[in-house]
C-alpha cells in the first residue's frame, strides 16, 4: 500500500483531502498534527519518515495567522521555513515526492495585473516572507517537488473568512469589509481535488504552480456573496484598507494566472462563486 504523509492533519486543507481521497483503497493517508509530529524538530521528522516511508509528503502545516506573525516572528519562521526544510530534506533522503502549499502573499500587489509563476516576488508581511522562504528551501532541498501557491483559502472546516462572515452576519445588522484588496477566494475542496489528481497520476511534472478558483473579487465582494448565497440579512458595506488597519500589510492585487497548471494537468478550475455555493450548501446541510 502506498503511504502518503499529510502534515497539518487537523487543518482545513487536510480535512478536505480526507474527503477527496475517500475510497482510494490503494493509498494509506497518514494525517499528523503537532501532537503526532513537530515538523520544526528535524530528528522527529527523520524518525517519522524512517518509520512510515511515505511515497508522498503533503505539507499542509503552516503558521497562517497573518497578523499575529508580525510579532510571533520566531515561531512563524520555524514552522514556515524550518518545517518545510526538514520535510523537504527527509523527502529527498527517503525518495518521497514533496508537495508544499504556499500563498499569493509572496507578492506585493504593485504589479496591478495577473501574476504568473515567473513574476518577481516581494512579500509585504512576515507571513508572506516566511512562506516564500519555505518555497525556496523546498526547491533547494528536493528536486521532486510541487509548490502550489493558492489564495484566500476557505472551506467548511476550521477557521476562515467564510466561517467568520457567517458568524458575524448572524450577530450584526451590518459589516464593513475592505473593498480595495483584490484576489480570488479559493475553496480548499477544489485544491484537495487537484492534489488528489497529482498523486493518483504519480505525476513527475515538478515545479511551481499557481492554483486558485477562477475569477476576481475583493474581500467586500466575497463577503457580499456569502451573505447573498446564504440568504443572510446582514448588510455589507465597502471600506478602504485604511479604514481597517491591521498589523500585517496585504497585497492590494494578487490574482494569479493558472494557465500553467491547467495546461499541465488538463483541468478545468471552478469559478469562485460556484464553489462558494457548493461549500455553503455543505455547511447548511450539516447544521
Folded structure, characterized:
The protein is of the alpha/beta class and 287 residues long. It has one domain: NAD(P)-binding Rossmann-like Domain (Rossmann fold, 3-Layer(aba) Sandwich). It has a six-stranded parallel beta sheet, with helices on both faces. Strands 6-9 form a two-stranded parallel ribbon. Strand 3, helix 3 and strand 4 form a beta-alpha-beta unit. Helix 5 packs across helix 7.
What topology, given as strand order, has the largest sheet? 2-1-3-4-5-10
Compute the number of strand runs.
Answer: 12
Mean of the pLDDT scores?
95
- CATH architecture, by name, is 3-Layer(aba) Sandwich
Q: What characteristic shape results from the CA principal axes?
A: globular
- Tally of individual helices: 9
CATH superfamily caption: NAD(P)-binding Rossmann-like Domain
Radius of gyration: 19 Å
CATH topology: Rossmann fold
Order of helices and strands: EHEHEHEHEEHEEEHEEHEHH
Q: Approximately what portion of the residues adopt beta-strand conformation?
A: 15-25%
Question: What is the CATH first-level class name?
Answer: Alpha Beta
Poorly predicted spans: none
Helix-strand category? alpha/beta
Distance between the termini: 36 Å
User: In this structure, how is the largest beta sheet organized?
Assistant: 6 strands, parallel
Q: How many domains in all? A: 1
Give the arrangement of secondary structure elements.
Layout: E1 2-7, H1 12-20, E2 27-32, H2 42-52, E3 56-59, H3 73-93, E4 97-103, H4 126-141, E5 145-150, E6 153-154, H5 161-171, E7 174-178, E8 182-183, E9 186-187, H6 188-200, E10 207-210, E11 217-218, H7 219-230, E12 235-239, H8 259-265, H9 272-286
Parallel strand pairs: 1-2, 1-3, 3-4, 4-5, 5-10, 6-9, 7-12
Antiparallel strand pairs: 8-11
Helix pairs in contact: 1-6, 2-3, 3-4, 5-7, 7-9
